[in-house]
Specification:
- Strands 23-24-1-25 form a four-stranded mixed β-sheet.
- It contains 14 helices and 25 strands.
- The structure holds shikimate-3-phosphate (S3P) and phosphoenolpyruvate.
- Phosphoenolpyruvate binds next to α3.
- Catalyzes the transfer of the enolpyruvyl moiety of phosphoenolpyruvate (PEP) to the 5-hydroxyl of shikimate-3-phosphate (S3P) to produce enolpyruvyl shikimate-3-phosphate and inorganic phosphate.
- This is 3-phosphoshikimate 1-carboxyvinyltransferase.
- One of its GO terms (cellular component) is cytoplasm.
Length: about 450
Protein backbone atom coordinates (compact mmCIF):
# COMPACT_ATOMS: atom_id res chain seq x y z
CA UNK A 1 0.00 0.00 0.00
CA UNK A 2 1.32 3.45 -0.84
CA UNK A 3 1.32 6.21 1.73
CA UNK A 4 -1.40 8.14 -0.10
CA UNK A 5 -3.70 5.13 0.03
CA UNK A 6 -4.05 5.66 3.78
CA UNK A 7 -6.35 8.50 4.54
CA UNK A 8 -4.86 11.27 6.59
CA UNK A 9 -6.13 14.81 6.80
CA UNK A 10 -4.95 17.92 8.57
CA UNK A 11 -7.29 20.11 10.58
CA UNK A 12 -6.21 23.65 11.23
CA UNK A 13 -7.64 26.23 13.52
CA UNK A 14 -7.46 29.70 11.96
CA UNK A 15 -4.82 32.24 12.99
CA UNK A 16 -1.80 31.85 15.24
CA UNK A 17 1.84 32.88 14.94
CA UNK A 18 5.09 30.94 14.51
CA UNK A 19 7.67 31.56 17.21
CA UNK A 20 10.83 29.96 18.54
CA UNK A 21 13.47 27.81 16.90
CA UNK A 22 13.19 24.84 14.60
CA UNK A 23 15.50 22.50 12.71
CA UNK A 24 13.57 20.91 9.88
CA UNK A 25 14.70 17.43 8.73
CA UNK A 26 17.62 16.76 6.42
CA UNK A 27 17.71 17.70 2.77
CA UNK A 28 15.88 15.18 0.58
CA UNK A 29 17.91 15.72 -2.61
CA UNK A 30 21.19 15.38 -0.72
CA UNK A 31 19.98 12.35 1.27
CA UNK A 32 19.19 10.45 -1.95
CA UNK A 33 22.59 11.24 -3.38
CA UNK A 34 24.35 10.38 -0.12
CA UNK A 35 22.97 6.84 -0.21
CA UNK A 36 23.72 6.38 -3.89
CA UNK A 37 27.31 7.59 -3.84
CA UNK A 38 28.09 5.97 -0.49
CA UNK A 39 26.83 2.64 -1.89
CA UNK A 40 29.10 2.95 -4.94
CA UNK A 41 32.12 4.13 -2.98
CA UNK A 42 34.99 2.09 -1.64
CA UNK A 43 34.86 2.08 2.16
CA UNK A 44 32.30 3.00 4.80
CA UNK A 45 30.51 6.33 4.73
CA UNK A 46 29.14 7.88 7.92
CA UNK A 47 26.19 10.13 7.18
CA UNK A 48 24.45 12.43 9.62
CA UNK A 49 21.40 14.60 9.09
CA UNK A 50 19.93 11.92 6.78
CA UNK A 51 16.26 12.47 5.97
CA UNK A 52 14.23 9.57 7.37
CA UNK A 53 11.37 10.24 4.98
CA UNK A 54 9.71 7.69 2.73
CA UNK A 55 11.44 8.95 -0.46
CA UNK A 56 15.03 8.71 0.77
CA UNK A 57 14.19 5.47 2.61
CA UNK A 58 12.97 4.05 -0.73
CA UNK A 59 16.40 4.82 -2.21
CA UNK A 60 18.08 3.16 0.77
CA UNK A 61 15.85 0.06 0.47
CA UNK A 62 16.76 -0.22 -3.23
CA UNK A 63 20.48 -0.37 -2.41
CA UNK A 64 19.92 -2.83 0.42
CA UNK A 65 18.08 -5.02 -2.11
CA UNK A 66 21.18 -4.81 -4.33
CA UNK A 67 23.38 -6.12 -1.53
CA UNK A 68 24.58 -2.91 0.13
CA UNK A 69 24.88 -3.24 3.90
CA UNK A 70 23.88 -0.22 5.97
CA UNK A 71 23.21 0.46 9.64
CA UNK A 72 20.47 2.91 10.56
CA UNK A 73 19.08 5.36 9.95
CA UNK A 74 18.54 6.37 13.50
CA UNK A 75 18.27 10.00 14.59
CA UNK A 76 19.61 10.96 11.16
CA UNK A 77 22.71 8.77 11.41
CA UNK A 78 23.33 6.23 8.69
CA UNK A 79 26.38 4.13 7.99
CA UNK A 80 26.72 2.73 4.47
CA UNK A 81 29.27 0.06 3.54
CA UNK A 82 30.15 0.86 -0.04
CA UNK A 83 30.57 -1.96 -2.55
CA UNK A 84 32.49 -0.02 -5.20
CA UNK A 85 31.24 0.96 -8.65
CA UNK A 86 30.96 -2.66 -9.80
CA UNK A 87 29.82 -4.30 -6.58
CA UNK A 88 26.02 -4.08 -6.81
CA UNK A 89 24.06 -7.34 -7.08
CA UNK A 90 20.93 -8.29 -8.97
CA UNK A 91 18.08 -7.44 -6.57
CA UNK A 92 16.02 -10.36 -7.92
CA UNK A 93 12.81 -8.33 -7.67
CA UNK A 94 11.43 -5.01 -8.80
CA UNK A 95 12.67 -1.98 -6.89
CA UNK A 96 9.67 -0.04 -5.55
CA UNK A 97 10.49 3.64 -5.38
CA UNK A 98 7.14 4.72 -3.99
CA UNK A 99 6.38 8.38 -4.66
CA UNK A 100 9.94 9.45 -5.45
CA UNK A 101 10.77 10.92 -8.84
CA UNK A 102 14.35 11.59 -7.77
CA UNK A 103 14.90 7.92 -6.92
CA UNK A 104 13.50 6.70 -10.22
CA UNK A 105 15.29 9.17 -12.49
CA UNK A 106 18.68 8.99 -10.75
CA UNK A 107 18.56 5.20 -10.40
CA UNK A 108 17.68 4.85 -14.10
CA UNK A 109 21.05 6.37 -14.90
CA UNK A 110 22.97 4.65 -12.15
CA UNK A 111 21.58 1.22 -13.07
CA UNK A 112 21.56 1.59 -16.87
CA UNK A 113 25.18 0.44 -17.12
CA UNK A 114 25.00 -2.57 -14.78
CA UNK A 115 25.46 -6.17 -15.87
CA UNK A 116 22.14 -7.26 -14.38
CA UNK A 117 18.56 -6.32 -15.21
CA UNK A 118 16.39 -4.24 -12.90
CA UNK A 119 12.78 -3.15 -12.92
CA UNK A 120 11.84 0.16 -11.33
CA UNK A 121 8.27 0.67 -10.14
CA UNK A 122 6.46 3.32 -8.14
CA UNK A 123 3.08 4.37 -6.82
CA UNK A 124 0.21 5.72 -8.94
CA UNK A 125 1.62 9.27 -8.95
CA UNK A 126 5.15 8.21 -9.91
CA UNK A 127 3.74 5.90 -12.61
CA UNK A 128 2.13 8.94 -14.25
CA UNK A 129 5.29 11.04 -14.35
CA UNK A 130 7.36 11.48 -17.53
CA UNK A 131 10.44 9.26 -17.72
CA UNK A 132 11.15 9.86 -21.44
CA UNK A 133 13.39 12.74 -20.39
CA UNK A 134 15.89 10.25 -18.94
CA UNK A 135 15.11 7.26 -21.18
CA UNK A 136 15.90 9.10 -24.40
CA UNK A 137 19.42 10.34 -23.54
CA UNK A 138 20.24 7.10 -21.70
CA UNK A 139 19.33 5.21 -24.88
CA UNK A 140 21.71 7.50 -26.76
CA UNK A 141 24.37 6.28 -24.33
CA UNK A 142 23.57 2.69 -25.28
CA UNK A 143 21.18 1.78 -22.47
CA UNK A 144 18.44 -0.78 -23.04
CA UNK A 145 15.36 0.57 -21.32
CA UNK A 146 11.77 -0.59 -21.58
CA UNK A 147 8.88 1.63 -20.57
CA UNK A 148 5.18 2.08 -21.32
CA UNK A 149 4.40 3.55 -24.78
CA UNK A 150 3.97 6.94 -23.03
CA UNK A 151 7.47 6.67 -21.57
CA UNK A 152 6.37 5.94 -18.02
CA UNK A 153 7.16 3.40 -15.29
CA UNK A 154 7.47 0.50 -14.83
CA UNK A 155 10.94 0.82 -16.30
CA UNK A 156 12.90 -2.25 -17.32
CA UNK A 157 16.67 -1.70 -17.41
CA UNK A 158 18.36 -4.50 -19.35
CA UNK A 159 22.02 -5.42 -18.90
CA UNK A 160 24.57 -3.82 -21.20
CA UNK A 161 28.27 -4.43 -21.65
CA UNK A 162 29.19 -0.74 -21.59
CA UNK A 163 27.66 2.68 -22.07
CA UNK A 164 29.10 5.41 -24.26
CA UNK A 165 29.53 8.99 -23.08
CA UNK A 166 27.46 11.68 -24.79
CA UNK A 167 27.37 15.46 -24.91
CA UNK A 168 23.78 16.29 -24.06
CA UNK A 169 22.03 19.68 -24.00
CA UNK A 170 19.15 19.34 -21.51
CA UNK A 171 15.86 20.37 -23.14
CA UNK A 172 14.41 21.17 -19.68
CA UNK A 173 16.23 22.57 -16.67
CA UNK A 174 16.22 19.41 -14.56
CA UNK A 175 18.70 18.36 -11.90
CA UNK A 176 17.23 14.89 -11.99
CA UNK A 177 18.02 14.42 -15.67
CA UNK A 178 21.46 16.01 -15.29
CA UNK A 179 22.23 13.74 -12.33
CA UNK A 180 20.89 10.63 -14.05
CA UNK A 181 23.24 11.18 -16.99
CA UNK A 182 26.24 11.95 -14.78
CA UNK A 183 25.61 8.76 -12.79
CA UNK A 184 25.34 6.76 -16.03
CA UNK A 185 28.52 8.51 -17.10
CA UNK A 186 30.41 6.82 -14.26
CA UNK A 187 29.90 3.60 -16.23
CA UNK A 188 30.43 5.05 -19.72
CA UNK A 189 33.38 4.97 -22.04
CA UNK A 190 34.83 8.43 -22.52
CA UNK A 191 33.35 11.71 -21.41
CA UNK A 192 29.75 12.45 -20.50
CA UNK A 193 28.78 16.12 -20.65
CA UNK A 194 25.49 17.78 -19.81
CA UNK A 195 24.68 21.41 -20.48
CA UNK A 196 21.76 23.06 -18.76
CA UNK A 197 19.50 25.83 -20.10
CA UNK A 198 19.48 27.37 -16.59
CA UNK A 199 21.30 26.49 -13.37
CA UNK A 200 19.73 23.66 -11.36
CA UNK A 201 20.70 22.12 -8.02
CA UNK A 202 24.29 20.90 -8.13
CA UNK A 203 24.37 18.45 -5.22
CA UNK A 204 25.44 15.53 -7.43
CA UNK A 205 28.43 17.41 -8.76
CA UNK A 206 29.45 18.62 -5.29
CA UNK A 207 29.12 15.19 -3.72
CA UNK A 208 30.98 13.43 -6.52
CA UNK A 209 33.81 15.87 -5.80
CA UNK A 210 33.61 15.09 -2.07
CA UNK A 211 34.00 11.39 -2.93
CA UNK A 212 37.13 12.17 -4.93
CA UNK A 213 35.60 11.91 -8.41
CA UNK A 214 36.72 14.55 -10.88
CA UNK A 215 33.85 16.64 -12.25
CA UNK A 216 34.60 19.52 -14.60
CA UNK A 217 32.31 22.51 -14.93
CA UNK A 218 32.72 25.25 -17.53
CA UNK A 219 29.85 27.73 -17.73
CA UNK A 220 26.59 25.80 -18.01
CA UNK A 221 28.32 22.53 -19.00
CA UNK A 222 29.37 19.82 -16.61
CA UNK A 223 31.47 16.81 -17.64
CA UNK A 224 32.96 13.67 -16.15
CA UNK A 225 34.81 10.66 -17.53
CA UNK A 226 33.83 7.07 -16.84
CA UNK A 227 36.00 4.49 -15.19
CA UNK A 228 37.10 6.31 -12.03
CA UNK A 229 36.46 5.37 -8.43
CA UNK A 230 34.59 6.86 -5.50
CA UNK A 231 36.17 6.88 -2.07
CA UNK A 232 34.02 6.96 1.08
CA UNK A 233 33.90 10.33 2.86
CA UNK A 234 31.89 11.46 5.90
CA UNK A 235 28.78 13.45 5.04
CA UNK A 236 26.75 15.95 7.06
CA UNK A 237 23.43 16.85 5.51
CA UNK A 238 21.92 20.31 6.10
CA UNK A 239 18.27 20.94 6.96
CA UNK A 240 16.14 20.97 3.83
CA UNK A 241 15.46 24.49 2.55
CA UNK A 242 12.43 23.04 0.71
CA UNK A 243 10.95 22.01 4.07
CA UNK A 244 12.03 25.27 5.69
CA UNK A 245 10.09 27.07 2.92
CA UNK A 246 6.72 26.36 4.57
CA UNK A 247 7.91 28.07 7.73
CA UNK A 248 9.50 30.98 5.88
CA UNK A 249 6.12 31.64 4.30
CA UNK A 250 4.11 30.84 7.44
CA UNK A 251 6.12 33.21 9.65
CA UNK A 252 6.02 35.91 6.97
CA UNK A 253 2.22 35.87 6.66
CA UNK A 254 1.27 35.37 10.34
CA UNK A 255 1.35 38.62 12.35
CA UNK A 256 3.49 38.38 15.49
CA UNK A 257 5.72 35.62 14.14
CA UNK A 258 9.44 35.46 14.91
CA UNK A 259 10.96 32.10 14.01
CA UNK A 260 14.53 30.91 13.57
CA UNK A 261 15.18 27.94 11.28
CA UNK A 262 18.56 26.45 12.07
CA UNK A 263 21.24 24.86 9.88
CA UNK A 264 19.30 25.40 6.66
CA UNK A 265 21.00 24.46 3.39
CA UNK A 266 21.92 27.67 1.53
CA UNK A 267 23.23 26.23 -1.70
CA UNK A 268 22.69 29.06 -4.23
CA UNK A 269 20.98 26.61 -6.61
CA UNK A 270 18.24 26.15 -4.00
CA UNK A 271 17.71 29.69 -2.75
CA UNK A 272 14.95 30.86 -5.08
CA UNK A 273 12.44 30.79 -2.24
CA UNK A 274 14.50 33.17 -0.10
CA UNK A 275 15.21 35.47 -3.05
CA UNK A 276 11.56 35.57 -4.15
CA UNK A 277 10.17 36.10 -0.64
CA UNK A 278 12.64 38.88 0.04
CA UNK A 279 11.65 40.53 -3.22
CA UNK A 280 8.03 40.34 -2.00
CA UNK A 281 9.04 42.19 1.17
CA UNK A 282 9.73 39.30 3.55
CA UNK A 283 11.96 39.95 6.56
CA UNK A 284 14.45 37.06 6.45
CA UNK A 285 17.80 37.50 8.16
CA UNK A 286 20.62 35.14 7.23
CA UNK A 287 22.53 34.44 10.43
CA UNK A 288 25.74 32.49 11.14
CA UNK A 289 26.54 31.50 7.54
CA UNK A 290 28.93 28.54 7.56
CA UNK A 291 29.79 25.28 5.77
CA UNK A 292 28.49 21.81 6.48
CA UNK A 293 29.64 18.78 4.51
CA UNK A 294 30.59 20.75 1.40
CA UNK A 295 27.33 22.74 1.40
CA UNK A 296 26.74 26.27 2.70
CA UNK A 297 24.27 26.52 5.62
CA UNK A 298 22.91 29.31 7.82
CA UNK A 299 20.23 30.02 10.40
CA UNK A 300 17.29 31.92 8.97
CA UNK A 301 15.39 34.31 11.25
CA UNK A 302 12.05 35.25 9.77
CA UNK A 303 9.64 37.80 11.16
CA UNK A 304 6.16 38.67 9.95
CA UNK A 305 6.16 41.38 7.29
CA UNK A 306 3.67 42.82 4.81
CA UNK A 307 4.23 41.16 1.43
CA UNK A 308 3.54 42.58 -2.01
CA UNK A 309 2.93 40.78 -5.28
CA UNK A 310 5.66 40.54 -7.93
CA UNK A 311 6.35 39.11 -11.36
CA UNK A 312 8.58 36.20 -10.40
CA UNK A 313 11.92 36.53 -12.24
CA UNK A 314 12.47 33.71 -14.75
CA UNK A 315 15.94 32.85 -13.49
CA UNK A 316 14.53 32.13 -10.03
CA UNK A 317 12.07 29.49 -11.28
CA UNK A 318 14.39 26.43 -11.38
CA UNK A 319 15.96 27.61 -8.10
CA UNK A 320 12.57 27.47 -6.35
CA UNK A 321 10.89 24.70 -8.32
CA UNK A 322 9.59 22.75 -5.30
CA UNK A 323 8.67 25.84 -3.31
CA UNK A 324 5.87 27.20 -5.50
CA UNK A 325 3.03 25.63 -3.51
CA UNK A 326 4.30 27.56 -0.45
CA UNK A 327 5.05 30.67 -2.53
CA UNK A 328 1.49 30.67 -3.91
CA UNK A 329 0.25 30.99 -0.32
CA UNK A 330 2.58 33.95 0.20
CA UNK A 331 1.18 35.46 -3.02
CA UNK A 332 -2.40 34.91 -1.79
CA UNK A 333 -1.60 36.95 1.34
CA UNK A 334 0.34 39.67 -0.46
CA UNK A 335 -0.83 43.06 -1.57
CA UNK A 336 -1.44 43.11 -5.34
CA UNK A 337 -0.84 40.61 -8.07
CA UNK A 338 1.80 37.89 -8.34
CA UNK A 339 2.57 36.39 -11.72
CA UNK A 340 4.47 33.17 -12.34
CA UNK A 341 5.38 32.02 -15.84
CA UNK A 342 7.92 29.61 -17.32
CA UNK A 343 7.03 26.95 -14.76
CA UNK A 344 5.18 24.29 -16.77
CA UNK A 345 7.34 21.69 -14.96
CA UNK A 346 5.01 22.18 -11.98
CA UNK A 347 2.37 20.26 -13.92
CA UNK A 348 4.41 17.02 -13.85
CA UNK A 349 5.37 16.81 -10.19
CA UNK A 350 3.67 14.53 -7.63
CA UNK A 351 0.47 16.27 -8.72
CA UNK A 352 -0.31 19.00 -11.25
CA UNK A 353 0.79 21.67 -8.79
CA UNK A 354 -0.62 24.53 -10.87
CA UNK A 355 -4.15 23.13 -11.12
CA UNK A 356 -4.28 21.66 -7.63
CA UNK A 357 -3.07 24.88 -5.98
CA UNK A 358 -5.44 27.00 -8.11
CA UNK A 359 -8.38 24.78 -7.07
CA UNK A 360 -7.43 24.93 -3.39
CA UNK A 361 -6.88 28.70 -3.44
CA UNK A 362 -10.24 29.19 -5.15
CA UNK A 363 -11.89 27.06 -2.42
CA UNK A 364 -10.39 29.47 0.14
CA UNK A 365 -11.70 32.52 -1.70
CA UNK A 366 -8.53 33.60 -3.52
CA UNK A 367 -8.61 34.70 -7.15
CA UNK A 368 -6.07 32.39 -8.79
CA UNK A 369 -5.90 31.95 -12.54
CA UNK A 370 -3.97 28.85 -13.63
CA UNK A 371 -2.04 29.17 -16.86
CA UNK A 372 -0.27 26.51 -18.94
CA UNK A 373 3.10 27.53 -17.52
CA UNK A 374 2.26 29.29 -14.27
CA UNK A 375 -0.35 31.22 -12.33
CA UNK A 376 -1.69 34.69 -11.72
CA UNK A 377 -2.77 35.29 -8.13
CA UNK A 378 -4.57 38.36 -6.79
CA UNK A 379 -3.42 38.73 -3.21
CA UNK A 380 -5.77 39.59 -0.36
CA UNK A 381 -3.45 42.26 1.03
CA UNK A 382 -2.12 42.95 4.52
CA UNK A 383 -5.56 43.07 6.14
CA UNK A 384 -7.09 40.25 4.10
CA UNK A 385 -7.92 36.78 5.37
CA UNK A 386 -8.39 33.53 3.48
CA UNK A 387 -11.75 31.85 3.90
CA UNK A 388 -11.94 28.52 5.69
CA UNK A 389 -13.03 25.26 4.14
CA UNK A 390 -11.84 22.03 2.69
CA UNK A 391 -8.99 21.61 0.21
CA UNK A 392 -7.57 18.54 -1.52
CA UNK A 393 -3.85 17.81 -1.43
CA UNK A 394 -4.21 14.98 -4.00
CA UNK A 395 -1.56 12.98 -2.18
CA UNK A 396 1.05 15.68 -2.84
CA UNK A 397 3.19 16.40 0.23
CA UNK A 398 4.04 19.98 -0.74
CA UNK A 399 0.41 20.90 -1.47
CA UNK A 400 -0.63 19.49 1.92
CA UNK A 401 1.99 21.51 3.83
CA UNK A 402 1.31 24.68 1.83
CA UNK A 403 -2.38 24.66 2.69
CA UNK A 404 -1.59 23.75 6.30
CA UNK A 405 0.40 26.97 6.77
CA UNK A 406 -2.22 29.01 4.89
CA UNK A 407 -4.50 28.65 7.94
CA UNK A 408 -2.26 31.10 9.79
CA UNK A 409 -4.02 33.78 7.73
CA UNK A 410 -7.50 32.26 7.53
CA UNK A 411 -10.79 33.48 9.00
CA UNK A 412 -12.16 29.99 9.69
CA UNK A 413 -10.83 26.40 10.09
CA UNK A 414 -9.23 24.66 7.12
CA UNK A 415 -9.25 20.94 6.51
CA UNK A 416 -6.66 19.52 4.09
CA UNK A 417 -7.47 16.07 2.70
CA UNK A 418 -5.09 13.31 1.51
CA UNK A 419 -1.96 14.35 3.43
CA UNK A 420 -0.29 11.00 4.17
CA UNK A 421 2.52 11.64 1.68
CA UNK A 422 3.88 14.47 3.83
CA UNK A 423 5.84 11.52 5.22
CA UNK A 424 7.82 11.37 1.94
CA UNK A 425 9.77 14.55 2.63
CA UNK A 426 8.90 15.78 6.12
CA UNK A 427 8.38 13.15 8.81
CA UNK A 428 6.77 14.65 11.92
CA UNK A 429 5.70 17.82 10.15
CA UNK A 430 2.66 17.98 12.41
CA UNK A 431 4.64 17.65 15.65
CA UNK A 432 7.32 20.16 14.67
CA UNK A 433 4.87 22.66 13.22
CA UNK A 434 2.63 22.47 16.28
CA UNK A 435 5.66 23.01 18.55
CA UNK A 436 6.34 26.41 16.94
CA UNK A 437 2.70 27.48 17.00
CA UNK A 438 0.79 26.09 14.00
CA UNK A 439 -2.65 25.08 15.33
CA UNK A 440 -2.66 21.72 13.51
CA UNK A 441 -4.05 18.30 14.34
CA UNK A 442 -4.09 15.21 12.17
CA UNK A 443 -7.04 12.96 11.60
CA UNK A 444 -6.65 9.41 10.36
CA UNK A 445 -9.42 7.72 8.44
CA UNK A 446 -10.54 5.55 11.35
CA UNK A 447 -10.86 8.58 13.63
CA UNK A 448 -12.96 10.35 11.03
CA UNK A 449 -15.36 7.42 10.73
CA UNK A 450 -15.71 7.04 14.49
O1 LIG B 1 17.44 16.46 -8.31
C1 LIG B 1 16.65 16.53 -7.36
O2 LIG B 1 16.91 16.07 -6.23
C2 LIG B 1 15.36 17.20 -7.59
C3 LIG B 1 15.17 17.96 -8.72
C4 LIG B 1 13.90 18.63 -9.04
O3 LIG B 1 13.24 17.90 -10.05
P1 LIG B 1 13.52 18.15 -11.62
O4 LIG B 1 14.86 17.65 -11.95
O5 LIG B 1 12.43 17.32 -12.30
O6 LIG B 1 13.34 19.61 -11.85
C5 LIG B 1 12.99 18.73 -7.84
O7 LIG B 1 11.69 19.07 -8.25
C6 LIG B 1 12.94 17.45 -7.05
O8 LIG B 1 12.14 17.58 -5.91
C7 LIG B 1 14.31 17.05 -6.57
C1 LIG C 1 9.15 16.93 -6.98
C2 LIG C 1 9.55 16.44 -5.81
O1 LIG C 1 10.22 15.26 -5.61
P1 LIG C 1 10.46 14.04 -6.59
O2 LIG C 1 10.60 14.55 -8.01
O3 LIG C 1 11.68 13.36 -6.09
O4 LIG C 1 9.25 13.12 -6.47
C3 LIG C 1 9.37 17.22 -4.56
O5 LIG C 1 9.90 16.77 -3.54
O6 LIG C 1 8.71 18.27 -4.55
Amino acid sequence: MTASAQSLSFELAPGGALRGELRVPGDKSISHRAVMLAALAEGTTEIDGFLEGADSLATLAAFRAMGVAAEGPSAGRLQVHGVGLHGLNDPGRALDLGNSGTSMRLLSGLLAGQRFATTLIGDASLSRRPMGRVIEPLRQMGAHIEATPEGRAPLGLLPVERLQGIDYPLPVASAQVKSSLLLAGLYAQGETCVSEPAPTRDHTERMLGAFGYSVRRAGNRVCLSGGGRLVAAPLSIPADVSSAAFFLVGASIAPGSDLTLTQVGMNPTRLGVVNILRQMGADIAIERPRELGGEPVADLRVRAAPLHGIAIPQEQVPLAIDEFPALFIAAACADGETLLSGASELRVKESDRIQVMADGLAALGVEAEPRPDGMRIRGLGAAGLLGGGEVEAHGDHRIAMAFAISALRAAAPIRVEDCANVETSFPDFVGLAAAVGLPITELRDVERQA
